[in-house]
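Assemble and predict.
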Amino acid sequence: MPATKRIRVALALVAGWPAAQVFAQSCAMCGSSFGPDDPVQRAFSWSILFLMATPYTLVGTVAGWLFYVHRRAAGRRRAAVVELAWDRRKVPAGETGGLT
Amino acid sequence: MRRRVTPLPPADSPPVSNTRLAIIVLITGESMLFAGLIGMYLVFRLAARTWPPPDQPRLPLGLTTLNSAVLLGSAIPLARALGAIRRGETDRVARRVELTALLGLLFLAVQGAEWARLVSHGLTLGSGTYGGSFYVLIGCHALHVLAAVTWLAVVAVLARRGRFTRAHHAALEMCSLYWYFVCGLWVVLFPLVYLY
């Protein structure tokens, strides 16, 4: 592992260590206002987590779908070709050959 | 001899039409509204020691399950109407849209009757967090169903007048997307409120 990558991993571990010491709270109020194992604290915590996740999920889903649709449309444009008639008969000079 | 040409999509037509983008923005906004309401419900539900409170009536599960089937089943004729217009069978569209609207109305009527019974049993908007959260969440969904049924009725009238063709049926598509959203929302709300 290169030195810079090792330093980054070490920094991430040092930054994450304090969070591992306590059970993560979704907000400071939930952690300080309620006692341990309080159902109200748990309720607020889950609700906040749900409300945090929803916009990301919605925007991610819509953005992913738009990306997919644009990619597919671009692929279709690339693939759209004029299929030449391979078996076209040779026609005498001066005639159109039946092309419409 | 005819030269076969695979038609290129017009260079200026975007892959997602503006009307479709508009309805997606609307649905995303509506989803956030319901996410807030669900967050509110989760707070009350998870914070309560017993749910529903012992002195409050239970929600009618059997009837609502049947009603849910009616609402979800209503999406089938609408999908078939959309399929018909895409195939150019315009004469079959109006009847299928009307059937969807009727099923939506039936869902609302059963919900209304169910609510009247609950109110007579003492579950009102003011009877604590249980009644308040139930009526706000389910009521908000019912209002959306009512709006969607009105939209379906307008689309059905337009279809009867022959305003939709294979190439031009954006109103029907938008209405269908909104109806699917309303049905999908119920798939989330029904287990959360009635089963959890």
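The CA atoms of residues 26 and 47 of chain A lie 9 Å apart.
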